[in-house]
């Protein structure tokens, strides 16, 4: 499909596939316009498109969508590029400086397809074994190399025990006058279970909804832990349906 990249001085139309990552699209922009990948921020309706995800994760991007390109000149980026290395392949991934080990594993899974439970991540010989610790706490910085080892089936351990999360669900102003719902759920609960709970308590009318966390569309089949939801976080609800068509 074709999308339009809008910058202050020009408009660029490019052909993309729904399986292409945002990072790959930025590389196309760099090839066409000469704007370095690290200087680019892409957004739709003020929602930033994250490098580790592909267009399937953003149903708001369809044929003919206009994507805003912001070029950052001499502004320190909140993102860093790291190399994730397997025994026979490697990927360059852009991550936020404050991301957790768990969210990095999630991005690797999205890009490479490797099951999260099979991953063991090592940096400078030290295993990154706490999914809730930030990458910066392990000393990960720009151009760092993370080594991925795969657990054998006999070494795959059980999921860590569930913990209680306290977070806030906020609806869009067009939905219910921007209502906020404080929620308590286990972090192992899925987004689908959260939706069913809101419907059962009549906090939402029966309809289709999209949940957003940190500018990212959430997947109904995945847990709050998988999405990196922490205590005090806000989840935003909009009417709509995620479509991969």
From TrEMBL:
Domain named Ubiquitin-like: residues: 3-60, 80-155, 165-237
GO MF term set: polyubiquitin modification-dependent protein binding; proteasome binding; ubiquitin binding
Cellular component annotations (GO), alphabetically ordered: cytosol; nucleoplasm
InterPro entries: Ubiquitin-like_dom (IPR000626), Ubiquitin-like_domsf (IPR029071)
GO terms under biological process: proteasome-mediated ubiquitin-dependent protein catabolic process
Family matches, as SUPFAM superfamilies: Ubiquitin-like
Highest taxon above the source species: Eukaryota
CDD domains noted in UniProt: Ubl_ubiquitin_like
Name under which the protein is recorded: Ubiquitin-like domain-containing protein
């Amino acid at each position: 499909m074709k999308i339009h990249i809008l910058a202050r001085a020009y408009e660029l139309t490019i052909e993309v596939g729904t399986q292409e990552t945002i990072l790959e699209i930025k590389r196309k922009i760099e090839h066409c316009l000469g704007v370095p990948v690290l200087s680019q921020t892409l957004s739709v309706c003020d929602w930033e498109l994250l490098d580790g995800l592909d267009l399937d994760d953003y149903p708001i991007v369809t044929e003919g969508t206009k994507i805003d390109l912001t070029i950052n000149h001499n502004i320190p980026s909140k993102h860093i590029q790291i190399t994730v290395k397997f025994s026979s392949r490697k990927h360059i991934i852009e991550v936020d400086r404050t991301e957790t080990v768990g969210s990095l594993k999630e991005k690797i899974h999205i890009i490479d397809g490797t099951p999260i439970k099979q991953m063991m991540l090592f940096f400078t010989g030290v295993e990154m074994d706490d999914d809730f610790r930030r990458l910066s706490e392990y000393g990960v910085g720009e151009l760092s190399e993370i080594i991925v080892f795969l657990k054998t089936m006999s070494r795959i351990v059980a999921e860590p025990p569930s913990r209680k999360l306290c977070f806030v669900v906020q609806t869009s102003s067009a939905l219910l006058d921007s209502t906020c719902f404080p929620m308590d759920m286990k972090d192992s609960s899925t987004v689908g279970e959260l939706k069913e709970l809101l419907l059962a308590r009549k906090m939402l009318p029966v309809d289709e909804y999209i949940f957003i966390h940190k500018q990212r569309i959430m997947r109904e089949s995945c847990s709050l832990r998988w999405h990196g939801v922490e205590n005090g976080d806000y989840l935003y609800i909009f009417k709509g349906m995620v479509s991969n068509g």
